[in-house]
Amino acid sequence: MRLNCNFGLLIALALAAPRAMPAQAEALTHVNVVDVETGTIERDRTVILNRGILVATGATGTTKIPRGARVRDFTGAYVIPGLWDMHAHVGGTGRSSLALYVANGVTGVRDMGSILDVVRPWRDSIQAGTLLGPRLVLAGPIIESTGWLEAVRNIARQNGDASLTEDLAARIPINTPHTARAAVDSVIKLGVDFLKIRNDPSRVALFGMLRHAREKNVLVAGHWPARITPAEASDSGYRSLEHGPLTIVNGQLTPTLDRMSADERQALFARFARNKTAYTPTIVSLKGYRLTPDSMVSRILADSAGALDPRRRYMDRGLVSRWVGAFELKQSETGTPLDWLSFQKSWLRDLRGMADAGVLMLAGTDAGSPLVYPGFAVADELESLVKEGGLTPLQSLRTATLNVAKWMSAERTFGSVSPGRRADLVILDGNPLADIGNVRKIRAVVRDGRVHERVALDSMLRSVESTARIADASADAADTSYVSLVNRALGANDSQQWARAAELWQQVLAANDYVPDHWYALGRALYNGGKYRESIRPFERALELGAGRAYNAAWNIARAYAHSGEPESAFRWLKWALDFGLRSRQAVREDPAFEKYRGDARFRALADSVDVSKLSRSEGRKHDLELMVAEVQRMHRDPNGTIRFARFERQVR
Questions:
Q1: Are the beta carbons of 49 and 72 closer than 8 angstroms?
Q2: Percent with pLDDT over 70 in the chain
């Protein structure tokens, strides 16, 4: 796989040995080593660990054990590589979930989108050896379709869901090739390991994002896109597709692969394998969110003692609150509901075919989603891949071990029980190749060369349970302080306390300056507080970061310049606002900011031109198409690079 040097460096850092390593070598004797590449078992072996590295394996009795090494007898146990959860949101599952991953043999997590100010310190502390947790590979802020993001943000605010509101505020909206490129650049600057796209925007914006990501040689992972085909996604640079394959037909969700014949599906899977496009099904997330009866969900959410499911008692209270909010959001869904049970059956039908075709299958849980228990859910996913997806136990085990290393081009660093690999291992009391459910029978976990036997693992679980029970607010102070700050700023906006709102938004941006909506909110607070000239830069920054509805920011900049007595700049930005999509000339003519310029010929030329809000539907459509052609002519190129300009112009006209 071709890697960007930055991506390769970041992955190397994530997989490197911590600065505090165990000084004493370890010898694990009389174990059965599971070879995840060949599917064979090497019996009665000794595994030597030293300074976080697996340095040797060999027959017990003949393998030399270093002087001073601690010898641990694991007679009859099976050793597998440490497991990975390749789709999780650890920022949402909480700091206490880090220990849950290790206790369940999960030594690595690919975080698919969390607030960086929360998860990056955890990653750094884990790397420094001061915090117990899995290796973290981070996506950073999720990139979303502007329209979808605005709609869901409004719902979250109407429902008073502060946690979801803040989560959505950190995401980056795109709706044009320009905002797509800006989003890629802004995320890369944050030093993340890869990009995550969720709800795809228009084709031109999505292709623009993928093209720019290729130019920057950075990997892209995302949900199955609805506006481009899976083949186009694979060819254009998606390096992993996530969740069940869905598309939109006539405004309704439809299973993507059901629209293809068996031969077409096999050709698609061969394309995935050829392009090294991986697939992370996250079967367990669909079960929790869509297939569990609402009555049972309500009972589990209320059952903090874990009588219905013992794993519930380990869950962070903030995570449970997010689960509640997610189910409330589900209740607001409109349109014809999808038959999720039928979808699951049609989707699971193809998993074995993908694996047999050579598609790189990855184990992911979507931890953070309702009733997906962080750490525990990886075993659920591996079992579902076998029992419901038809994979063999070996194929399933590879999805959380060897295949992960292949996706990161790090086979020589981890993913197998071989000399030279990181000492991240799981020691089981059962053969996982005979029954994948045996990954739950954990006798010990080795994390970076430190051996945590069953007594230590049980102690971890008790500690997490205690934290959940007493709701220790200090455990996740970083999460709540940032969320609280944003909520106070939103409250100041709502109550029109503009000076206070500006002060709070400046504090928010000092902590996290890559959210365009926050810059826009600062500009709005300054403008409404009468600080017109000071409001211009925040509005400009919102545009640079890809703010949704760019005409709003441009319109406010024009008004600010008008108030500041700078008509040339005001008229220039007013024209851009109209070009960006500001539709009502009447609003322009009546705005008090332009009162003293109403006699200016330049202003009249802009304000008295076609008022789109007064056009009929057919006239408006013709006007919009003319603007589209003019924009393409101005750009002198096709934004997504897939069609000729002349043909595009003919089709539009």
A1: no
A2: 82
8 Å CB contact between 126 and 101: no
DSSP 245-267: -EEEETTEEEESGGGS-HHHHHH
Residue closest to 244 by CA, chosen among 371, 383, 342: 342
Where on the phi/psi map is residue 333: left (φ > 0), alpha (ψ -120 to 50), or beta? beta
CB 366 within 8 A of CB 87: yes
Edge-to-edge strand list for the sheet holding 220-223? 172-174, 143-145, 195-197, 220-223, 238-242, 278-280
The residues near 315 (Cβ < 8 Å, ≥ 6 apart) are: 373, 468
Dihedral through CA 643, CA 645, CA 651, CA 653, nearest 10? 160
Q: Is the pLDDT at 481 greater than 80, yes or no?
A: no
Residue 231: what residue type? Answer: A
Token representation of residue 332: 């607001």
Cite the beta strand spans of 365-513 per DSSP E. 425-428, 442-447, 450-453
- The model's pTM is 0.72
| pLDDT recorded at residue 551 | 73
Tell me which residue of 342, 336, 328, 244 sits closest to 284, measured CA to CA.
244
pLDDT at 589 over 90: no
Report the pLDDT averaged over residues 255-259: 87
With H, G, I as helix, E, B as strand and everything else as coil, classify residue 272. helix
pLDDT in tens, 20-45: 556 689 999 999 999 999 999 999 99
Alpha helices in 193-289 (DSSP H): 203-215, 230-236, 262-275, 283-286
Q: Which residue has the higher pLDDT, 622 or 201?
A: 201
Nearest to 206 by CA among 257, 279, 148, 261: 148
CA–chain centroid gap for 67, Å, is: 46
First to last CA, the chain: 42
- DSSP strand E in 347-500: where? 425-428, 442-447, 450-453
Confidence of residue 166 (pLDDT cuts 50, 70, 90): confident
Token digits of residue 181: 């490129």
Query: What 3-state DSSP class applies to 240?
Result: strand
**CA–CA separation, 24 vs 274, rounded Å?**
44
- Determine what percent of the chain falls in helix, strand and coil, rounding each to the nearest 5: 55, 15, 30
pLDDT value of residue 290: 87
